[in-house]
Amino acid sequence: MEYMDMNRLGGASRKARVEGGQLGGDEWTRHGSFVNKPTRGWLHSDSVVSTTGVSYTVRYMGCVEVLQSMRALDFNTRTQVTREAISVVCEAVPGAKGAQRRRKPSSRCLTSILGKSNLQFAGMTISLTISTSSLNLLASDCKQIIANHHMQSISFASGGDPDTAEYVAYVAKDPVNQRACHILECSEGLAQEVISTIGQAFELRFKQYLKNPPKLVTPHDR
Fold this sequence. Notes:
Blueprint: E1 2-5, E2 18-19, E3 22-23, H1 46-50, E4 54-66, H2 75-92, H3 108-113, E5 114-118, E6 124-130, E7 134-139, E8 145-150, E9 154-159, E10 167-174, E11 178-185, H4 190-211
Antiparallel strand pairs: 1-9, 2-3, 4-5, 4-6, 4-11, 6-7, 7-8, 9-10, 10-11
């Protein structure tokens, strides 16, 4: 199971935290080791992830609105949010893997955090491109960009949960869905590779940030 906890650039401590393989938080502040780097090294060359990116063919399953900042939630609650979002879309999208599994009733806490679902592109095969700049979701048939989430907009990501092994979920902000948890369905064994690649992209992004931190904004600049 992989989780990454990501904090947005800003604040006095400028680091990024990733727990095992779950990315989460709303600031790029680091509180410990980054994603658990595989003993044999990352799957891809840093130069590819930093430029063109790595592409995977997955199914986009839709997204579920997240009504609260992930920063305000503890780590376990963030994990529950992504699991619940996966369950919601699995029940709503025909042919979803694991849809036959019965879902436990949502806790009152989760019903106050998760909002409406957007299933406009649900079930569509897409090309997911992971790079240090963004996660880009491109419809395979019509080449329409479903979403392009810059790394700074992503606050949490998870994948490889034993109960939902085929899924990767990440929380990001965009003008269409505001803050939402986006769900990707992967072929067998692919979810771990996808979440590992996202971890590699975040680590490289963080290293780039350390080399070229943004200038502090003075009151006069504002």
